[in-house]
Task: structure prediction
Amino acid sequence: MVASLPQESRSLLGAHIRQGVVNGLVGLGGSGYAAGETVQLTWDYGAYGKRSAGTATTAADGTFAATVPLPSFPPGATTLNLIGRGTASGIVVTDPGFQYAVESLAQINLSPTTTLAGTTVQVSGGNFQALGAVTISVNGKTIFTAYPNTFGAFSGKYKIPANAAPQSLVITASEGFGILASATLTIVPAITVTPPSGPVGTTSMTVSGTGFTSSNTAEVWWFDPNTYQSYDLGPVTTSAPLRGVFRKPSRLPKR
Result:
């Protein structure tokens, strides 16, 4: 038999809620559980079902602190409670009323939000109509169709074309029920240096760039973080067919 505190001493409290942001973190505190046990955290949607919110481990005094992502809350759902169940003690505590903490508007999240051409971006959505169909588009062009689960959430991937120029793209998710959400994806240029290291004054290196504006001039500089000195390696012209690619041989400057 596992000893535990009286029922009135047990608690599961959600605080520090970043309202309106699907996947925004919710700070949790729990007490009254057995020492060192695992607490299973579950989102309870009532008639819509339940989904895991993760786990937490209690300290010697039976308390725990954790953070969990705020979940999707689909249109039509009316209940969202958080349940904490001790796997060793069997103690179950419920923190009700999270439906008042979530924003009802549909949302999409991008990961990353700023990246390079050729990168694959995770597109996640929440608060959409459960079991519907969501059209995902980039600057108005459809890239895939997502199908939200029972809780109105979906996840998909978008690979940025390798020849995409630096720009801001608008990723839009629209559902046939008039539900719409959007987010901005920023594509930035990149440079690489080969080799990445070598003796000062004798090492020949090549500076290569991708994702720059086509048929334009870019100035290449070398910055020494030890002396805070900058060295102008000269201008380069980006190529048009490869969408802003350049390559410039140089020598590692002496300090």
